[in-house]
Amino acid sequence: MRAFGLMLALALMAAPANVHAMTVEEFLAKVKALKAKGLFAIGSRDIGMLKTEMKAIGTAYRADIDGARKAGRTPDSCPPPSKGGSAPTLGGKAFFSDLQAIPPAQARTTSMKDAFYAIMRKRFPC
């Protein structure tokens, strides 16, 4: 079950794009429900939805970082360059730990995009 949870987390970090202002609370609830389904979650629509959410956030993040650098501004955060020129990744386990550390009242109103940017600032300050 742990291996499935980690695979799910990693899959969610690299998927297709569509911006939806999902809250941290909604995101974590969907992940929890998918983990509870185990292998039966594979055909779930929610996997695609979560992948889409994370892909859109990652794309926006990279565009914001690149835009700031090109404009001569300090970016929101300064992740190290990754191998092969692709975007740096944040490990699934660490990312979910950071999301779960957000207080419930704040998770209800914080978008995943805002949470992602805050996590990246914390992990990769400039």
Task: Give your account of this protein's structure.
It is built from 6 helices and no strands. With 126 residues, the protein is mainly α. The radius of gyration is 15 Å and the shape is globular.
Major beta-sheet overview: none
- Helix/strand/pairing class, anyone? mainly alpha
Radius of gyration: 15 Å
Percentage of β-strand residues:
under 5%
Could you estimate the helical fraction of the residues in percent? 55-70%
The count of strands amounts to 0
Shape: globular
- Weakly predicted, low-confidence segments: 1-20
Order of helices and strands: HHHHHH
Q: What number is the mean pLDDT?
A: 80
Number of helices: 6
Please give the alpha-carbon distance between the first and last residues.
37 Å
